[in-house]
């Protein structure tokens, strides 16, 4: 544990000497940077993005790096999306939209729930956001006050926890590892609610594990949270990217759940910064008021383009088949080269590998893999501040060739070093 | 005053019965909507956007409304911007960028400060944001903690105050009306800093008044705030839209000021949601870390397109000449029809009209003007929660024909009703 904290400190010294030792941060870090807010000092860098920056710099310098560090589909958005964006530039003034977004997009998303999940959603409950990032900010502000404790699975997407810190919400990390079946246990959630926890956020499929929460557990989690008067937030950004069985939306079990989704992953529109929420009726107006003030509206060209994303099924299913082939390759090959302790990988495009037989300092390991094996991966510490030093996350959203090259390089590196 | 509160209540009853009476809001509003956070309940609707929605609905229903309600340039972004967006779609994958944005755009903005203001800015200090909205959120979070008091001019852009409420920052409204020369007085700022105020945000040219702060006052405000160890934030979103004399950037007087700007107004790119900050060195890394977590990055197509905005000078200057002609028309005609008590209007594209000879309930007045005169304008209560009931804001960012029609309609309405 001491080693992990030390590893952490190394990464954060650019901003503040050590997040492990808060007293040290207050006395040392705050002295030289006294004017940075205390809440900002609690927000940890998103390591995957720092690795992405270094990988880009190396690529720009002519170094041939295989990129498995960031959750980003390779290449461009679907052709129909690009066509719709071009048409919007010809035909629309592209000014601000209503805070909740263009009605045709909201209606198209409602239709998607009917067609894909058999669930009726009033378009008035659909709120268009600037990526899922914008949705998190609005949902957390609408539902939680500073000082509220809210449950998060550990491991989990680091921005949840970091946005919480920025907004004064206390993240209550709930074990969601192999021992818990890769999702928070219902009993633990119930106990924390009794202690005053105000809500729970889960993702299924999850980042970084890929795990899908089975229907019985999902329903039980929702019912437990809502019975206690808390908010259940369901991050469904990896819906559509499933390989064994589909994932169920929280809307199947509740009209009060806050559902967050995005066009970034399945629809391959990361840089377009466009996502959505389905809100319970009682949060519609407050989300609109917050959105007017915090965002004005989501990018207009992206809103027009996103409508066409639902017509790009063929291209998107091809893409999904590509991820599935990548996944098969890695699930076959990684165990052979000594990287076999993997989380379920039911969906999304990540493998979460237990590398505790190699190190408990996965930051140094990821740095060495980038520099020595020319494969960019992410330390588990992004996703799990407690045990993440024993894990790596590998994204297989790249091309199949890239995955094959990554396996080769990792095999050679492991042979030499492990 | 009671009347204004009542008028306010009317607008807010959709979410919470009355923002004027906090006790009432807690007992009534919170009973039926108990699960909305207390901080969200403090955030007031942005009236201009509600008016915009109604104006749009009326237009869609075939009603011929002249739109002066929203600060939005008419028509489309410059041709070169659209060309650059098309090229980016052909040539770039449009995935996430670094949190601080594309280097060529950051370099181009730095060059803009050299060419336009004669000031050297290191591109590393330029941070690309999702509109100025994104910049506010990052700057406020980086610089201020919950509980900090920060000064804002009153009247002023309502989102400042509302984002403050969302983030737990206390807005310290500083009189900035006719009696103060349309900007906070230095003595008052100094006094509030002594009481513990942590910073000051001003805009020049300002929304809703159009007032430019003269150099001597701007320098004195900055020096006063920084001498007290506070943060000076300069909203320069209306730079470029000035009609009598240019506006000076805060960077001329300080390397520690936080400067916020955007492509929305002068560059006519509202719906593209793209802006920037120039940050002091000590905030660079913390802004990056916050940006990674809260936004990931600004819309990529907009970043590529914005680079070309600096080459669209001819088109943009034509546009500015159009606003100047609109401004001349209104400054000549409005006094003749009884709407003459106007704030300076040195820049931006707003007129702020004192209508206290007509009403102290400008919400009802704006609603009547929309329905009876078919001219959409905004109540001053968006910008000034204390005296805004006696003011209207009229945006002249529309076409010249629209402005002429607005004058005709307002003249006829005034003749009949005032």
Written description of the protein model:
- The structure is a homodimer of 418-residue chains.
- In chain A, 46% of the residues lie in helices and 12% in strands.
- With 418 residues, the first copy, chain A, is an alpha/beta fold.
- Chain A folds into two domains: 43-72 and 315-417, Aspartate Aminotransferase, domain 2 (3-Layer(aba) Sandwich); 79-311, Aspartate Aminotransferase, domain 2 (3-Layer(aba) Sandwich), CATH 3.40.640.
- In chain A, strands 2-8-7-6-5-3-4 form a seven-stranded mixed beta sheet, sandwiched between helices. In chain A, strands 9-12-11 form a three-stranded antiparallel beta sheet.
- In chain A, helix 7 crosses helix 8 and helix 13 (313-336) packs parallel to helix 15 (400-417).
- Chain A starts with a helix and ends with a helix.
- Chains A and B meet through helix 3, helix 4, helix 5, helix 7 and helix 8 of A and helix 3, helix 4, helix 5, helix 7 and helix 8 of B.
- Most extensive interface, residues per chain? A-B, 79 and 79 residues
The number of helices of chain A is 15
- Report the CATH C-level class of the largest domain in chain A: Alpha Beta
Q: Note the beta-strand portion of chain A.
A: 5-15%
Query: How many structural domains are formed by the residues of chain A?
Result: 2
CATH architecture of the largest domain in chain A: 3-Layer(aba) Sandwich
As an assembly, this protein is: homodimer
CATH topology annotation of the largest domain in chain A: Aspartate Aminotransferase, domain 2
* Silhouette of chain A: globular
Strand element count of chain A = 12
Provide mean pLDDT of chain A, rounded: 91
As a percent range, the share of helical residues of chain A equals 40-55%
SS-derived structural category of chain A = alpha/beta
Strand order in the largest sheet of chain A: 2-8-7-6-5-3-4
The CA-CA distance between the termini of chain A, in Å, is 22 Å
Q: Uncertain segments of chain A of ≥5 residues (pLDDT<50)?
A: 1-34
Order of helices and strands of chain A: HHHHEHHEHEHEHEHEEEHHHEHEEEH
Name the CATH superfamily assignment of the largest domain in chain A. Type I PLP-dependent aspartate aminotransferase-like (Major domain)
Taking all Cα atoms into account, the compactness measure Rg of chain A is 21 Å
Q: Which sheet architecture does the biggest sheet of chain A show? A: 7 strands, mixed
